[in-house]
Amino acid sequence: SLGIVALQQPSPYFRGVIGQLIHDIKAGQSVSDSMTKYPDIFREATVAIVRAGETNGDLRGVFTALARYEDRSARLQGKLKGGLTYPLVVAGLSFLAVMFISIKLIPSITAQYANFNAKLPLLTRIVIAFSEMVRTQPLFYVVLFGVGAYLWVNRNRILASDRTVKFMLNFPIMGKLYRKMLLARMFRVLSMLLAGGARIGRAFEIAALASGSREMRDAMIDVGERVVAGSELHVAFSYNERIFGNDAFKILAFLRLATHTGSPAPVLTKVADATEADVEAQAEVVNKLMEPLLLAMLAVVVGGIIFAVYYPLFNLGQVVFQSSGLSK
Question: CA 328, CA 320: separation in Å to the nearest integer?
């Protein structure tokens, strides 16, 4: 089966990884143990889920559930990345526009002020100083490209860090959608494990790993300990309802239903489905509203720089008058 899958992969690197998995399995290793050699491909939570499937003897069911989970998760991440990519593109275009104006436009304009001993507006002086730095300081480009290279090489580690996740959760508008996406992932993994017969404590530990947030990870571990100690599911979650954000009341109502039905896995799946549908719908609206707002931001940035440079020209007569020493 893995050999057939390897033939379908366009990436030579990934084909090599699957080939190594085949070699390790034939040598007697378990699938999960072999997957741990490639943490850049298989997340810790994914390996833990596969290990749980091996323990329960239901590897086929786990792989099927994982495939569905990864498909839905990738689609949600695509929605959120689309909403975040556009601001980055606009920010990049703004930076390029500022650099072009600083190098080509500002020097020719500011040369007209060189012969006048007049005090320019603060914003104009800031723009001129930046232009001077860009044109005369090679260290600026060394730092710029150095920082850019560092961020690119370490992008995966930076994006997965607790600080970045915390920043994303508190980011205006998109932070709420990101929180819902993490909650949907967490509940789907928990539902998958409980339906597969995993131990309750272990199921919560793996769901905590899949959450991707330290806040949610700590909360899930606490909930698992309370459930193992005898607390009902919705009661255990109520002690950590802060992770649900504005949806706490609605989610706790679903969890109460899961407790009373005695079948938490299907209800948790419904919670994940509803949360993912909510994220997709809101992401579409946010993406449509973000385009005109960001274009307006680009216009303000570029227009502000041009205004700062040309504004003294509108008062050139007064500047000449002041420089002549005839003004009071």
Answer: 13
